[in-house]
């Protein structure tokens, strides 16, 4: 890495960064000077001063690289990235005292306003925790964070041999289990062996177009697999947290519909007690198996274009670290809220972002200009997709928030026996490969009537 850099930030932050220059990688950084935001001063050449980040004339800075001595708010950072891209400059952050390129997580990792880490630690420390999909993008991130909380035992259940191999090397203290959630006997056997206290169920099929094509596989994994895990968990006295998605709200595709029926199943289980079954909705997790970000990265490597389904399409985006924090916050909050059963928990993710903006940001992060160096083209919505996602459905209502940033949503209750019958019927159709009939019955099953909702609210 060879930089011709200007260090930017408040006088105090710039001064501290310049004092650490001796610890930066040798032969890689040529300092051109400093640009101060606000008051203060710094040693060396002063290239610019501005009253705010927004007022900084990025194009006029006599350097090809901008090293941020401190990180501004996410909206300011995105705007700064856009101006830097137009000026053919790269942005770097200080990480461990040394500069590194600005990454996607940096511009999307909107922190929870108040992560109740003590509650998370109290919920998981000293407990036996099992994560399904423990080698996947979200499951492995959960595993890393939980491993740091001193659990009594951490078990990672995964059906991908390669993913399990990778996370087992990284976390040698964890117990790897190679098993498929679609195998009910394997779930009963392994859960009886591991005896978890808490289960985080992250395993799922997430690719919307593929689940649309292979609805049977989506049902067998996302519904039958969930039920196998939930029954094995409750038989062994464990509480369950089910990772759902905003695509479960008014779903337009089979993947979202399987997740919504999975939520309804968990809500019925949670109301029955005594063990918990808590659904947690996440937005589009950047870098995960179901995210568009890996596709954009591949397209960037090929020189573009980046393909977006529709210019108007929006999504709630969160980074993998943010998703892990959200799951842990919602899980700990839900387990502590014994009086709030039968609720879906989600995290306040602010405003949805146009996917085309994500494409522009990824081009800018690569040091190129959207529409000039790399084109963006529009391909049309894929089967099962919709323009906009919601966090809360029209057939749901909000309950009092149990913690900062945590949203609790209720809906008309469904009987556990009824949901079991629905899953049994869908499983039979899935095993027959009756794709069209299966999809029709799935969407019929998740439809809740306004009369039922109003009656539940009144009662």
Note down, in words, how this protein is organized:
With 459 residues, the chain is an alpha/beta fold. It has 2 domains: 100 residues, Rossmann fold (3-Layer(aba) Sandwich); 300 residues, Rossmann fold (3-Layer(aba) Sandwich). The chain contains 16 helices and 21 strands. The strands form 5 sheets. Strands 9-8-7-10-11-12-17-21-20 form a 9-stranded mixed β-sheet, with helices on both faces. The protein has a 6-stranded mixed β-sheet with strand order 3-2-1-4-5-6, sandwiched between helices. Strands 13-16 form a two-stranded parallel ribbon. Helix 5 packs across helix 12 and helix 9 crosses helix 14. The N and C termini lie far apart (64 Å).
CATH homologous group name of the largest domain: NAD(P)-binding Rossmann-like Domain
CATH architecture of the largest domain: 3-Layer(aba) Sandwich
Q: Ranges with pLDDT <50 over ≥5 residues?
A: 449-459
Largest sheet: 9 strands, mixed
Widest sheet: strand order? 9-8-7-10-11-12-17-21-20
Mean pLDDT: 89
Q: And the CATH topology of the largest domain?
A: Rossmann fold
Strand percentage: 15-25%
Q: What integer value in Å does the Rg equal?
A: 24 Å
Number of helices: 16
Residues in helix, %:
40-55%
Decide which structural class fits the backbone.
Answer: alpha/beta
The CATH class of the largest domain turns out to be: Alpha Beta
**Distance separating the two termini:** 64 Å
Task: Give the total of beta strands.
Answer: 21
